[in-house]
Amino acid sequence: MMIAHLPDSARVWLFTAGRSLEDDELLLVETALNEFVGGWKSHNAELKAGFAILHKTVVAIAVDESVEAPSGCSIDKAFRLLSDLGEKLKTNFLDRLVVVKPYCNIAKVMSRENVMKAREENALGPHDLVFDFSINQLGQLRKNYLQPFAENWLGKTLYKEEAF
Known about the structure:
9 strands, 3-stranded antiparallel beta sheet
């Protein structure tokens, strides 16, 4: 189930694959997420949920909390699913310490070390757009899920004393 049917107020969680997924890997992730959100429950109540995969890299899972709010256990199930998928695909969907810079239909995922190298090579500057992983509502995701690198968690640290 895609997220188009959910309201802007729906809660959203973002996960990164750690790299661009191949077509067969995308199919595996889409199939697993379709099955998961189609049967996602909280205290035996069905959740109105959906998902999207952005730039073959970022997974967004959303739930309409106005219908039924997910419990801690049901949220844990979503994280466990992404952890299990990461093991199968030899990647880590739960790594929050990355920077994701989109390019057309794919994205480049950079660790802190890769970010430092990209800055040195002028491949990543303060105004380059990267994913904003602080988003927690679907409306924010729909409106603008990108932010200048200087406003990103790592960019703020790197640029706090530099003028740009």
